[in-house]
Amino acid sequence: MPMTAEDIAAMIKAALPDAQVEISDLAGDGNHYSARVTSTAFAGKNRVQQHKLVYDALGGRMGGVLHALQLTTAIPN
Amino acid sequence: MSDTNARIAEIVNANDVVLFMKGTPLFPQCGFSSRAVAILEHLGVAYDSVDVLQDMDVRQGIKAYSDWPTIPQLYVKGEFVGGSDIMMEMFEAGELQQLMQDAEVARAG
Fold it and tell me: Model's pTM, two decimal places?
């Protein structure tokens, strides 16, 4: 069962409450998304650790029901 | 499982640059793998690739080995670097070129 952009954003925000999440449905098919996540939780972490925080927020769906999520992480200025 | 871990360790330590991907560099079977190959080709470094679609043990095992849920996955000198998004971010920032240079990775022949 595919996830909606709202589901993805809600799960990320539940785990990272201060996160700003911008999601685009790349193909318009509800299956290929890109997400830009900005959160203070990423401070002091390398890219792998930052992406893992988001994957953890998605509770194991990444690589499963959520195949195509192009992810960019950033720390707020 | 531990056999698979040992095999993966052997693979990532046998070559300076290893890409675990879906398909082959000539025929990638996924857009993310295709993007990872394009970045490595652009960098002009010698690399080995492992088609996880040909080996279910490695396909699952590499996710546990790296604690990373998706494929492709890039290893340099036995260290996990990231997936295709991180490769692209690092490439655009010039960091991947630097990493390859610092690791004294061979050029593609």
Answer: 0.91
The single residue listed with the structure tokens 């911008």 is A22
B69:A68 CB<8 A? no
How far B103 CA sits from the closest chain A CA (Å)?
18
Q: Which residues of B touch A64 (CB under 8 A)?
A: 69
What is the set of domains in chain A, with CATH numbers? 5-74 (3.30.300.90)
- B73-76 vs B17-21, strand pairing mode: antiparallel
Task: Please compute the mean of the pLDDT values over residues B15-44 and round it to a whole number.
Answer: 97
**pLDDT one-digit tens code per residue, A37-70:** 999 999 999 999 999 999 999 998 888 888 789 9
CATH code linked to domain B2-100: 3.40.30.10
CB-CB under 8 Å, A68 with B85: no
